[in-house]
Every structure is written in structure tokens, then in C-alpha cells.
Design goal:
The complex is a heterotrimer of chains A (295), B (244) and C (321).
Chain A lengths: L6 H32 L6 H19 L1 H26 L9 H23 L15 E4 L2 E4 H23 L1 H11 L1 H6 L4 H23 L9 H16 L4 H21 L6 H13 L10
Antiparallel strand pairs in A: 1-2
Chain B lengths: L1 E10 L2 E11 L4 E5 L6 H8 L7 E6 L2 E2 L5 H6 L2 E4 L11 H12 L15 H11 L14 H13 L5 E5 L7 H18 L2 E5 L3 H7 L2 E6 L2 E6 L1 H6 L1 H8 L3
Parallel strand pairs in B: 3-8, 3-9, 6-7, 7-8
Antiparallel strand pairs in B: 1-2, 1-4, 4-5, 9-10
Helix pairs in contact in B: 3-4, 3-5
Chain C lengths: L1 H6 L1 H19 L2 H24 L10 H17 L4 H23 L4 H21 L1 H4 L17 H24 L1 H11 L1 H6 L4 H27 L9 H14 L6 H19 L3 H15 L4 H13 L1 H8 L1
Helix pairs in contact in C: 3-8, 3-11, 3-12, 3-13, 4-5, 4-6, 4-11, 5-6, 5-11, 8-9, 8-11, 9-11, 12-13, 13-14, 15-16
The chains are: A mainly alpha (295), B alpha/beta (244), C mainly alpha (321).
Amino acid sequence: MEQSITLAGFTSQLLVGLSRAMILFIVSSGLSFILGVLRVPNVAHGSLYMIGAFVAHSVATAVGGVSGFWLALVLAPLAVAVISLIAERTLFCHLYEREHLMLLLFTFALMLILGDLTKITWGADYRSLTAPPFLQGSVSVLGTAFPRYNLFLLAVGPVVAVGLWLLTSRTMFGKIARAAAVDREMVGAIGINVSWVFALAFVLGCLLAGLGGALVSPTVSITLGMDHTIIIETFLIVTIGGLGNIWGALAGSLIFGITQSIGVLILPQFAIVFPYLAVVVILTLKPTGLLKSVW
Amino acid sequence: MLRVENLRKSFDDFKAVDGAHLAVDPGELVAVIGPNGAGKTTLFNLITGHLKPDQGRITFNGAEISRLPAHAICRKGIARSFQVANIFPRLTVFRNVQVSVLSQKHLSHTLFRPAQRMVVEETERILESVGLIDKQRSVAGVLSHGDKRTLEIAIALGNEPELLILDEPTAGMSPEETAATMGLVTRLAREQGLTILFCEHDMEVVFNVATRIMVMQQGRTIIQADPEEVRRNVTVQEAYLGGA
Amino acid sequence: MIADIVRSRAFVQHVVLLPVLLLVPAVAGRFYVYILAVIFVTGLLAMSLNLLAGHGGAYQFHHAAFYGVGAYTAALILTRTSLPAWVAFGAGPIAAAATGFVVGAICVRLNKLYFGMLQISLGSLIWILVLRWYSLTNGDDGIHGIPMPEFLSSATGVYYFVLGVVAVCLALMYLILKSPFGATLRAIRDNPQRCEAVGINVRRHQLIGIVVATFFAGVAGVLFVVLEGSVFPDMLFWVLSLEIFIMCLLGGWFTFYGPMLGAAIMVALRTFVGSYTDYWTLVLGIVLILLIFFLPEGIMGIHLRELVRQRGRRASMKAAE
């Protein structure tokens, strides 16, 4: 705290916050998408993120090198998508007619099960993954050294955002999914299999969780328990953004990432408290979130 | 007693109520009619505070009520039933009405006294008057459709209202049930001096029972007059009766 | 009124049950006495949640936060001040209820899932504060070796204290549920819109419900301190909130004792399955899925369904109320 806040320090923290926000956005946009279409807060989302990170680690270490990294970025989300598809088709899809609370509790059960399955598969040890050489080291941004990998994240985030936007606004699936969110009877009535729309939406949302996990894996220690932190954070993000609103998820992620990195400059010990405070302030002023909820 | 002036309410681009006028005087049985989507239910929801109007004034006994929350409007003496049977399905018939009576007597906040022995007489009297006393121990959710609608009226009576608003009290009823329900409504109006505002699809019912009729179309009040005049009115015939 | 209670069957059952529970320390081993006390405390917590969840129909998703506030308040007063123990024991529930009031006042403006999400946010803020405020709460490590008054120095003393407090709390909760307020709360669960239309201020009732329920959660928190002599941030963690939600569901959340039964099963599962395998949450997850699919009204719920079948509508009335 003694150190004065320099411009360089500020810039570097801001960029760290932004790149953290990109990960949060990718994960929470998936959560928000599921919320928007299925109206279920997917508690297992954090577990899928964690599994994404573990799978990415395994793939990248097994294959090695640059190709291993790219392969991990592809395979980890796919593995997570497969897991979620299985869970959805065998069990979850039978609950759509039931109370929302039951759906939520089901995803909680899924979280408990996936957490232990992760422990069984990968053990309780910490793991870490190094980024491929071309993403290691740092570059100088406005006079501060900035990790290359974070710049990579800053590039990936907007790509995912634009991709999601195109998917939801420009494709048939996106339109049907949005319509199903508003009025599922109507969509059913025009002869669309709502159950499969839900399945696809669920799997897509989970895939984003896996992608987030894979992308975060070179920057954090991969460990059991990382599911718990991310799920709370992404829940808060989608709440302040407006439930089911993908742009809200982006706004929420930016607020979350930036307040935390600024908190580091002001009160390092309580840095993590800042985003939570921001959440409380926003929700007190605007209880239904910043942007229009799809509900 | 109740005055509605130039009331407007839109949902996004849809003007559900767009210039509604209504006057209800004590002791009247006023019917609101109009084709589907004319804004009858929205009008009732605006009066009872379940929706907030965009424009216009609602006064009850001289006091403005258009901005009050639903529970406060109820306290002023307006009770209502809903279009779909709106009861407490997991509670007993007795408890359904008792909750309303307790609320009326400002007893809902009582924490440490058993409710079992409270306001029993009042509750039973209401059940007696609507003819549900024999079923008071059943769970409300298992009642027949007609009984559920009657229970709704009983719940509303628990509030000792001056004005009772009934949103299609006979919707989905058989002719016998309809006759029984309307009989009940007119009897309540007569015996307890209740003022009643209702909307209804069945024209025969409306013209038999109502002392005054208000016709709505596309959210607007077309005419407000006694049944004979409404029957004679050309606009109404074209807009509604002719088409029906 | 007293005469009614004395004559009721429930009263007779309790008069029989209480001596049995009083005799447990005399016959059972220390470990079982301890487990039974854990069940009482967890059960009280679950039953306090059920006031809102099962009877009030509210999505009270972060109830553990208030449990933690009660426990930490008591623990901090006991370790940091020289105030007498009863002050700490009283302050815990009061602090929890005060927190409940603030959180509740913000949450009741919204419905269902938004209410729940908002509460998760606010509860998590409390959790993260406890976790990070090292100088006050010891952060991750929690507070251990909390000094206790003389009469709570033996395991038996603790057991009787817990039993006594829980019994009083249950009696109070029973009275509340039977009161006009309880009836109104269930009416709100069944149909909030109709409640507004009969002049009930739904939000105010929900807020009172939250304050009452968080008070009892605070009592459970204090009892945890008495029982374990320590507190740690996981008590306020959101996963615990979901676990107690499951206890309500497991035991049957339209019943009075259901959550206590659910707590007993969960504690037993954790204790005994946990001693065989590291993967007890896997077992819990599977149990939960089975529950969702086959027993959505909980174990005591099925008992009620049977009653309905046997005795018809009269019994179903009891089921609901």
C-alpha cells in the first residue's frame, strides 16, 4: 500500500483485470445462455469449467508443444460438451416439466458428482500448465511488461462474444432458442422439438464453460475447488448483467475483472472484496441487473 | 363510489387500455363487456393495483388509488376474484377464507397464538353464505371447478369489501353452475349491500343481472349506460353484439 | 390454549420422546452423543430454512450465511472480549437476524429466482469478508479453542444444552407455524398474487419470515460454536446453503420435522459413508438425483401421501398445513 499508484502500475493492473474479465465472460456467457433458454441456473457450470482445465492440462502434456496447446483448446470444450450432453439426455431432459427448483437441485447434484469424479480421475494434486513458447514471456505495453498470454485472452474474448452474437441473432438455432426462452409452448406448437433445442442450448453453454477452463489453465494452478470460486463469480456476473442477457454477462465480467484489479492497487488484502461490493451496489440500485433480462 | 377517468396502459407497443371511463355507484351491479382482448382484465388489474396505469385517475370514495399497491387498495374496501381460479391450493377451504379474514382484521402478523381458534365464526359465516360450509375441511386444490370459483368469491368476502370485483366469475362453468353462481352474486349484492363490478362473456347473464353496463373495445369505453340503452346502441351492436 | 396443546397427540409424542433423548448420554458412547448433538444443530438450521423454503415458498438460497454470522458473532465476543458467555450466545442470533433483515429488505423486492440470486450475491459478500478480514476473523484458518463457560466443559453438558435450546426453538417454530402468521406464510407460498388481493403485504410478511428464520439460523450457529469450540469460513459458504436445502427436500419440506430427519440422514451419511470413502459427495449427489426423480416430496412426504390414500381428504389437509 505504501507504493504510490503509478500510471504504469495502473495500466498493467487494468490489462490483467481485462484479461481476467475475458475468461469470466466466456464462462458466464455460457451460464447466461443456459439461464436464458432453459431458465435454470446451472450450478454444475463451475465443475465443467474445472474439468475443461484438467482435460486441457492432460491433452497439452500428453501431446506437447504448440500443437498440444491448440489441441487442448479444441478437445477440452468438446469433452465437456460430451459430458453435458450425456447428463442432459439421460437425466436432465426428463425434468423440464418440473419445478425450477428441482432443475436447480439436479445441477447441484451434478456438481457434487462431477467434483468427485474429477478427484477420482485426476487426484487432489495441484497442476500447472505452461503456455506454448509463442505465448510465453511478455511484451511492453505503454511502458509496462505485460504477459503475452493475457494479450491472447484479450483477443479471444471478443471473438467469442462476436461468435455468440452471430449465433443468437443470425442463425435459425439462435432465433429458435430465443423464442423458446420467451414462450416454449409456441415454439413447440410450430413443430420444433423443444427438448432438443434445450439440449443444444445446454450443451453449448457447457461447452463455453469448458473453453473457459481450457483457456484459463496456463494462468492458474489447476486444482479441485476451482469450481466453487468460479461458480459464485459467474452467478454474480449474470445477476448484475441481467439474467440471460449475453451482453449483460460481458458488462458484468468487465465490472468484476476491473474492480478486482483496481482493488489490488488500493487495498491488496481486500482486492477480492471489491467486485462483490460492486455487485451489491449495482443490485441495490438496479435489482434486476444492468441490462434487460430475458425473463 | 368508484371513478375511473381516461385510464391508459400499454405493454410495449400494445395499448391494452386506451381511454377507459367507468363510474360505479353504491349498490349497483355493473358489468363490463367487450370482445376478447378489449382490455377488461387489464382494467380490473389496474383498478386493484396489480398493474400500474400509464395515465389516468382512479378514485375510490373520493380518494385517489391509482398509485397504491394491491394490498393497500384491498384495505380501502375493494376485493376481487380472478379469471382463473386463484385460490390457495394446498390449504383447506376453511384456511383459504380464514387467511383473508385474518388479514382484514389485521391479525396476519400474530406470531405466537394458534390460528386454529381465531376468527372461526366470521369464516364459517362466509362459508355458510356461499354454501361451502360442508367442504370446509377439504384441501382447496381438490375442489371442483365451480366450487373453486365460489371459494374465490368467499375469499374476497373475507375482506368485508364495499366493492367486489369479479373477473368472469362463470368462465368455464356449466349452465347450471353459471346460474347458481350468478344467483349467489345477486343474492350477496342484495343481502349484504355489496356493490359489484364484473365482466362476463355470457350476454344473457349480463343483461339479466347487471343494473348498468360498460362496453369496451380496443381498450376504449364505447358506452356506459343501463342495459336497455346498451341493447339499443348501434355502435355496440356493430362492434360487439353483432359480431358475437 | 395451553389445554389444547397438552391434549394434542403431538404433545404426548414429545413427552415420550424427550426422556428418551435425555437418557441418551447415560447409555450411548461419547461419539454417538456428539453425533446426535450435531444432528440437532444441523436439523435446527435446516428447519429454520424450511420456515422460508417449505412453508414460505421463498428461494432462500444462502441461508448458511446467517448461520455463519451467528457463529462468528458468538465466537468473536467469546475470544475478543471479556463479556459473559450469555451475551455472546444472545448476540449471535440477534446479529444473524439483523443481517437477515438487511439482506431480506433488499431481496424481497424481487421474486423467486431473482430473490435467490440476489441472496447468493449478498451472502457471498459476507462470506468473502469473513474469509479476507484476517485481522478480525483469522481468514481461512477460522477461530479455534473458543473458551466456554464451566457448565459446557463436558460433552454431556454440551449435549443437554444443545438439546434444551433446540427443543425451545422447535416449540417456538411450531407455535409460529400454527399462528396466523404461519398460515399467511403458507398462503403466500401457495399464491402470492391472491394474498396481495386480500390485503396482505406480501413483502413485509416475507421480510418478517426472513428475520425469524435467520434468528433461528443464528441460534444454530451459536450451538455449533458450543459444540465444536471453533468456527471457519466454510460455514458461510454457498455449498453448505445448498446442502441444507437438500436436507429439507430429503426429509420432506411440507412437513414440520422433515428437515430434522433430512439433517439426520445427511449427518449420518457424512459420518459413516465418509469413514469408508473419500468420495462421500459422489454418494450425496447420487442420493440427490434419486430423490429428485423418485421422492420429490421427501421421506416424510411419502408418509403423508400414504396417509392421504388411507384416510382421504382429512389427512391431506394435515399434509398441507
